[in-house]
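W.,

You were right to be curious about this one. When I first looked at the sequence I had no strong expectations either way, so I just let the prediction run and decided to look at it fresh. Below is the sequence, 78 residues in total, followed by the output.
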Amino acid sequence: MNSILDPGGVTGATFNLAVSTMGAGVLTIPMAFSEAGILVAGSVILIVGFYTVVAIRFLADCMDKLGQNSYETISREW
């Protein structure tokens, strides 16, 4: 069987993490909406999404300012 992604590569690991995270979210979102209601659950999703984007921007700014290219090397600087 031919693989599109190289085994053990960064791209493959990224997709694996993303699929795992999204899979858990897809299973829990319907229950969250039914328990909290559309307005509250939708608002929480938007707020968490906003803060996720802010955190990623902070990490990208740290990478630029420190001249590093990974989260691991950024965390070693601190």
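Here's what jumped out at me. The mean pLDDT is 83. And, maybe more interesting for your project: The CA atoms of residues 5 and 54 lie 30 Å apart.

Coffee later to discuss?

I.
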